[in-house]
Amino acid sequence: MLPDDPMAAARPDLVEEQRHLVESRRALARMRERTAAMPALGGDRVSNEYLRFTLWKRMKALEDDPDIPLFFGRLDYGSAATGSLGLPGELFYIGRRHVTDEYGEPMVVDWRAPVSRPFYRASSTDPMGLRLRRRFGFSHGVVTAYEDEQLAPGNARGTEDSSSPPTDLRSSILEAEIERPRVGPMRDIVATIQPEQDDIVRAGLGSTVCVQGAPGTGKTAVGLHRAAYLLYAHRDQLNRQGVLVVGPNASFLRYIGDVLPALGEIDARQTTVEDLVAHVPVRSTDNAQVARIKGDARMAAVIANALWSLLQPATESLVVPIGARRFRVLAHEADEIVDELRRRDVRYGAGRAMLPQRLAHAILVKMETAGDSPDDRVQSSVARSRPVKQFSDELWPSADPRRLVIRLLGDPSFLASTSAGLLTDAERKSLAWSKPPKGPGSARWSLHDAVLIDEAQDLIDRTPSLGHVVLDEAQDLSPMMLRAVGRQCSTGSATILGDLAQATTAWAVSSWTDALAHLGKSNSLLEELTLGFRVPGDVIEYAARLLPTIAPSLEPPTSVRRARGELKLLASSRPFEAAAAAVSRALATPGSVGLIVPDDSTSVGSAALDAAGVAHSILGADTGVDGTVEVVPASLAKGLEFDHVVLLEPAALVDAEADEIIGLRRLYVCLTRAVTSLVVVHSRPLPALLSERSTLTR
Fold this sequence. Notes:
- Helices cover 40% and strands 17% of the residues.
- The protein starts with 11 loop residues before the first helix and ends with a strand.
- It is of the alpha/beta class.
- It contains 28 helices and 25 strands.
- Strands 21-22-20-23-24-19-25 form a seven-stranded parallel beta sheet. The protein has a six-stranded mixed beta sheet with strand order 3-4-2-1-5-6, sandwiched between helices.
């Protein structure tokens, strides 16, 4: 359907673009209908199920949302310049997925295709063969405007709304997309990717990229778009090996959960570190001191020492009766076999499986020396015999990672022997359980215990490697947690996302160099994003006052948005009522509202909104970030964004943390969640770094 606009006749280009959009949607519907009509006929039942699943995935990828434009840009090629990806006169519409007409001709080209890259990279100094780049504006799925940028001399300009280049945020369409209200889950940024972001998105599969990104620089979206790009460019390989997105908590995963499906990718799995190491149920929480020790990289050596200490020296010879004769492997010979397997640096479980075969081979050598001619069947039979299996079990006993950690934390003498030279006496005393559990089922495991179990499990049986892992909020992970994530991509690559200024855990690493070393990715690319597209200038500059204290090595972020935003500091003797009133005022303008409170004030903040008649949900207690107003515990605010933020009692938020620097970092996180306005409500004095500009409002 064409736009109902009496001026349409005066704007034939706009009408033609809407016609192309309508025809593209029809073509996408035909593609989906053809897929639905395909029979799943394989050679057997398993093949049929596989084909059905493949067709189902294809159907999901071809789903169309009428409110989301199929394309957002157009490229007109005008020259055959060196490196040009199109021919003179060719025209390509750039969108979220590839759409072809009934003859197979492209109506929309996937944004990840090589021919689409000039949309993000071309400039007047390097037009990449383009004559013109067009960016579209949409409203409810209808083309409402376009902007053209000349990229070659002598072009006629046909602009709608603006004549400025769209890639430097002087474009009204680009700016409108960035300024669009943030209601609901995170959305993709495929129409607004900037050149420095595009470099990261299109980094090759063989490269691990670490992105240090200030608030609002789009690092999370860049990481997700890189996953989508890699799934497009290396689909066969990554479909086999898998792609994993690791986020800080379930609320965050729900918030970002729609980004990849909106780009046509449904194969990436999403999880948290807690679910990644879910070998045991987590029922308790360690204090900061204990968590810091358990998360230290030294614990990897302690776990290894504990596991390999299970090996026992032979106390007698192995005797194997074969027919009327007995063959022996002397104790020192058996020890040499075990030592040889250890020198091969095999996993504990692999070595245990290999030992019977090695002992059996030693028996066969003795049989040959005695004049027999045994073959491989004899060796296999000997390896399975009771004497060899029992002898192997004594030398190389089975290992349960859960019981190993129980013994390590519950037996002070065992901990002392395995951590000698690694931990201090005070650290060992802190780790020791006062009352060891009887077994894995009765233990009150913490998250950090589960990470230790995961380390032991990998030493026993190697963790299978995925093709690519996206790790967000990596700055909050301990060295042992980073090792757990690194095992998921030991032979693959990763995209590491985070901000050292937002590190709010006692066990966090202090630098990206250390973090990458723990991940096993020391030779990674490190990129820093400082241009903010989300947080307005007044807000980010106010929050950046904390940076010299919380992260002195980082460059302060810069907001490139035209709007400076709205920042208010309100002192009140009745802060909860004042906060509820501020939320009510924020609702007068479009967009989402987040009331961020200290964790222990969540219920009081919710009650204040109830008293003010403001409908809301509580983040973490509801199904997701899909309401207009959310009460957000400060510990869950990281990674989220709201058009309007009301932040309650910063001093209490800082005091809630055991360490002042961590408290100030938590405050920095909460201050930088706003897209349009930030209201800071307090009854207590603000932290000294933020106390200027405070105004008293009763």
